[in-house]
Amino acid sequence: MTNPPSALQRTTTGLHTIRAPVRDRLEQVVDELRGIAASDFSMIEEVNAYILNVPGKLLRPTLVLLASEVGGEPSDDAVTLAAVVELVHMATLVHDDAVDHSVLRRGMPTVNALWTHQIAIIMGDYLYSRSVTELAGIGDLEAVRVLASAANEMSVGEMRQLLSYDDIGYSEADYYQLISAKTASLMSAACEMGALAGVASNRAPLKRFGHCLGMAFQIADDMLDYEGSADVTGKPTGLDLRGRKVTLPLVGALREMSPTEVDQVRHVFTLVEPSDRDVEDTIALVRRNGGLEYARRKAFEYADAAEAAIAGLAPGPALDALRDSVFYVVDRSR
């Protein structure tokens, strides 16, 4: 196998190290999250309490805070922007789980599993609207534009994913277009909004950094469905296959499969409820035909592009942490 790109040579750093430069401010973000999401309606408060107590990694608000401090000083607006970005992320997860009929998220029951799909959709809408209301209160129309654009892209990405189900002819270009909208758009927005609260001249490179980071993140996340465990992902291995989702490991492997093997995968994608054996056999086919190695190379290509995007920015703890975040997102299962 060809050696992966140079990013593989870097040692992965834990999330606690990435958070270190902004740890105190992240605590403020959590407090602000609770304040923004608060409601005097008991049903909303009940669901809110559950959502906010399910442990999250706070990666996106960490990116906002770090981006705001590259070459600059901490600002109060960055804390609010970070909370708003996390609220939008949470809203997206609640909606996605309802659309996918998922029962677990981060190892815990989803909102739609504990309550109903209707409540999940309404709660997602509530979190979206609260985030926009809070953002408008800052008075930064450019930040509103950036976040609104990302929210629109994520909606389009979700629709693209719906159309990708069952389609093993889904192309690599289609896949990149999907994850760019569904995942990379919000990470890009997080970094760009951080720059708006910090050094404005950093906006373009940090936007590019966030996009490449998001692409690497999603490819690595999709690999976990073929090689991860519930302890790492918070969901069963093979869940994407059970839902007949086409991701990059499968796309890469299909190119190398024999016609008989392709027919085997095609058959599995016609089943409403594939058996454990069907899923295990398909995972084995993807591994045997180099799907994971292909996806890993692509993830590290985006990792290298992310690092290159911020190569010229002011050195310091915030920039170092952003660099470390690249290798964290592509190596979470190790």
Write up what this structure looks like.
With 334 residues, the protein is an all-alpha fold. The chain has a two-stranded antiparallel sheet. The radius of gyration is 20 Å and the shape is globular. The model is unreliable at 1-12 (pLDDT under 50). Helices cover 72% and strands 1% of the residues.
Key phrases:
disordered N terminus, single chain, mainly alpha
Write a brief caption for the model.
The protein has 334 residues and is mainly α. It has helices at 15-19, 23-37, 42-53, 59-69, 76-100, 111-114, 117-138, 141-164, 172-197, 203-227, 230-233, 239-242, 248-254, 259-268, 276-288, 291-309, 317-329, and strands spanning 104-105, 108-109. The protein is globular.
Number of helices: 17
Question: Low-confidence segments, ≥5 residues, pLDDT <50?
Answer: 1-12
- Identify the strand order in the major beta sheet: 1-2
The level of helicity is over 70%
Span of the ends, CA to CA? 20 Å
Q: Strand-and-helix sequence, N→C?
A: HHHHHEEHHHHHHHHHHHH
**What is the overall pLDDT average?**
91
Shape: globular
β-sheet strand percentage: under 5%
Helix/strand class: mainly alpha
The main pleated sheet reads as: 2 strands, antiparallel
The value of Rg in angstroms is 20 Å
Q: Would you count the extended β strands for me?
A: 2
